[in-house]
Structure formats: C-alpha cells, structure tokens
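Record type: monomer structure entry
Structure origin: computed from sequence
Chain ID: A
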Amino acid sequence: MRNRTLARGAASVVVIGVDPHGMGLIRECLGTEAVLPSQATPYEDALLAVRKVRPNVVVMGFDNDFARAVQLGPQLSAELPGLHMVAISERTDPERIRAAMRASYREYVVLPEDADLLRKAVHESGSGAEEAHDQGSVVAIISSKGGGGASFLTVNLAAELSATDRVSVIDLDFSMGDIAGFLDLQPQSSIHDLLRNLDRLDERSLAAAVAVHPSKVHVLAQPNQLVDSDDVHGEDILRVLTAASNAYQYVLVDCGGRVDEATLTATSVADTIILVTTPEVVAVRNAWRRIQMLEKLGVEKSNVRLVVNKWGKGSELRLSDIETNLGVTVAATVSADPVACQRAVNQGQLLREVSSRSQTYKDLAAMVDLITERVAQVPASNTRSFFGGLFG
C-alpha cells in the first residue's frame, strides 16, 4: 500500500464538496481536534486550496458529485504526497468504497455513524502518532477456481519471503479458508476477532491475533466456525489490511476462489495480484472472468501476475493458448507434483520440508521474484480470445 507522511501538531484540514449540513456533522465530530475552515471548498477549487493550505488531511464529500470526488483523489495525492485523504458520505455503498480506495482515499467514513474513525484519522495526522515510513506491500492471491492451489502457493511463498522479511498471511476465505491447517497451526484468535473489535485495532492487537509458524510467518486465520461473509464490510477489511501493511513488509492475502466483498476490497488495494489458474479449459475460462472483474475494479494489468499451477507435459492447454485467450503473459509456471504436494498438505508442512529437491518447490521458490522485483508491463494480445467470443 502506498507511502504516507504525517505531520506533528494540530491537524490542518481542508474540506471539499460538502454542503452546510455535512460541515455541521464534521464540526460536531472533530470539535477541537483540528483546524477547520469556516466552509467547504468547491470541487473546482480543490487543487488551489491544497496548494495554498498544504493540509495534513483532506475530507472529501462523496455525495454531491461522486465522479468529481473520485477524479480528484489521484490529483490531490500527486500534488501533496503523504496527504491523508478521507472520503465522507451519509450512506454505505460497496461500489463507492472500492472507488475511494482506488482513488487513494485512506478511509471511507459514514457520518454520523463513523465519527470515531474520522476523529482518529485526524488526530493521528496531527499528533504524529504514525511517523513517516513505507507501508508494506500487499499481495492478493486469487484462484480461478476452487482447488486451484492458491492457498498452497500462498503459505509456501510466505515461508520463502520470511527468511529475510517480516511476512504476514491473511486468510480471507470466510467460508472454507484453512490456511492454519496448511501450516498445522492452532490459532487462539482469528480475523473475526479483529473485525469484532475494530475500535481497538492497532499493531498491538494485530500481533495478539496472529499465530506464528516456525518459519516466522505470521498468520491471521479464519475461525473454526463458519462466518457469514455478508456481514463482512469492505471498509473493515481495508482497516485490517492497513494495520497489517504498517506492521509487515509483505502481506500475502489468500482470497481463494471466491468473489465477495472481502476479496474485492483486497484486490482493489493490493500492490500485486497473483492470479492462479490450472491448464484446463474450465479454469482458464474462469481466469478470463477474473481478469474482466479486475479491469472493472480499475486494476492495471501491469499489477497482475498470471501463474499456471499444476503444469506438466500432459496439460490440456499450451501456455501460448492461455496467453492468447487471456491477453496476459504467463509470469510463472509451477510444475505438477501431486504426491509431494498432497503429502505436505496432509502433514501440515511446507513443501521444502517434504520435497526440497522437487521441481515444484524450485518453481515455487522462483516465484518470490514476482513479488520482490519489478516486472515489465504485461502486454495484452490483440487476438480475439475464444473466451471473449463466448462471453462477449
């Protein structure tokens, strides 16, 4: 997630695109927490106001002109790097929340319900509770179908990274997630516990919620009981990811094969997305659908790394078939070794502990470069795909 710099002292706030009623809510919420303007700045004067005031925080109204508010996000962020931008509204809307995230807004606040969140954002910006530092890199790992191997790749990639960096794995599959089982862990807390206590969320509470594997990978697991993912909100997942990216150098998010509010949020804010498919028609067709979804979310293709898992001589499709029909270059392949992989899963061990000489492990270890190194922009094919023909 992107860098930020916060200043010391009372926070200076510029409010943009908010009507008098909204300004009243903001004043009531912040009180003496910040230096507030007498009235909101119109959208068309936003850049001028930020250049003149050089504020710590911009509070942007999302109700009066949503499209203009989204457009201003990247412009203001580029004008004043480290600016803490907060989107405010009087209603929750998942599409608007994701749009705010893509446009560099740190929080999406619904007033008056989320008054504490706005106060906290402004207070920290003014007090210097968060010093200038680089946030960790968020990597979302998504599968084109169930059983595609995303969870297996996630835990083993995390273990390779943890040799030199602080690494966390977050399990976002609220129906069937079992990252803890892959590592033979028995967590005492889960992501659900964090979500129920967001008012106390910080790096300390996050540290108390994770389970630590001997490889030094920190795991934020799913609870033993099933959780209704409809009760999980995008803004809450964003707060968990923000806390994790403050605490770790790499945050690997296992999104599984599901498409829900949690995984849409993670893919919207991730620095890198690893899309895992297997070399078969059904899986690649679903990968095509995932790519269309990512494009609708505003994700740049250059941030997507396509990985073909369970690759072998007997694969149903050639790599050239997959690349032509998805319009994305295959960034890596992971050889099929069902015996060694199943043994690792059954024993709750890493693949390197079971079969460090296998080609599968070597392929997987080489994938670290997809996360740690800059990869050239992925070219799109001009050839019309058979999936494009099927789905329009």
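Annotation 1: The CA atoms of residues 162 and 216 lie 6 Å apart.
Annotation 2: The radius of gyration is 22 Å.
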